[in-house]
Write a structure and sequence with these properties.
homodimer; 116 residues; Arc Repressor Mutant, subunit A; three-stranded antiparallel β-sheet; DNA-binding
Chain lengths: 116, 116
DNA sequence: CCATCATATGCCCATATTGGCATGCGTCAA
DNA sequence: TTGACGCATGCCAATATGGGCATATGATGG
């Protein structure tokens, strides 16, 4: 193996939600279970397209599916999003500090120049 | 254009943090600014590799860089992570509800079977 | 049993990546 | 000025995707 591409999107949640349409699907599912075709329509994608995205979401555990007659209802299982929320939360203290740090840089630069 | 792959990773934060090594870089930078080589060493990657990941992070605005002599110090700018935190936070109410919903499914199935 | 509806898959194409290596470029020290 | 150091890039190889289409699968209703 000489080159590698990217970790399979099906392997982790971060990758699964990197796709805008998959995020939209998750948002839609907050309103409740929905069959594939309905999701496809509401999001303006083809049925195969929706199925493929749903498959990825299913494999990382963000959605569950349940057979209901001829349909297959997909439902949200947001537990997998918690790690992402927590990971980003670990940077919360830096959101506001960023500007201050930037200022610190500028100060540093000014002092450095004065010394030269 | 007949086929498309995936939105450029450099275009949004969700995609930028989909890469494990880039997440590690961000975590390391919480401790403060660091030159490329040092990051590469600590994460066990080559210098070009680190540079490439840093470039992606820079283009989505998650890191800033500052020249310091021969070195280039990279620093964290976590503001871009806030949207991700908020998006996932929008599912917080479903983290605990998931099990209940699952139970509801089981109940449904049982009733359905009894009817048959 | 048959036509139809609802989905999942397989295949092919064009693209986006990531990694390894070599190399260009600017900076600093002797 | 010259050589070493620190980084960014370019190029190539191997892969993972996402979309469009056709088609296999399954279940339902007559």
């Amino acid at each position: 193996m000489v080159g590698m591409a990217r970790a399979a999107t099906t392997s982790d949640v971060f990758n699964a939600i990197a796709e805008p349409q998959r995020r939209q699907i998750l948002v839609l599912l907050r309103a409740g279970e929905r069959p594939v075709t309905e999701l496809a329509q509401e999001l303006g994608m083809t049925q195969p397209g929706a199925s493929k995205h749903l498959r990825v979401l299913r494999e990382v555990g963000l959605v569950r599916d349940r057979k209901a007659g001829r349909q297959r209802l997909y439902g949200l299982d947001a537990r997998g999003l918690q790690p992402v929320h927590e990971w980003t939360g670990g940077f919360e203290q830096f959101w506001n500090a960023s500007f201050d740090r930037l200022d610190a840089y500028v100060q540093d630069l000014k002092q450095t120049r004065q010394k030269e």
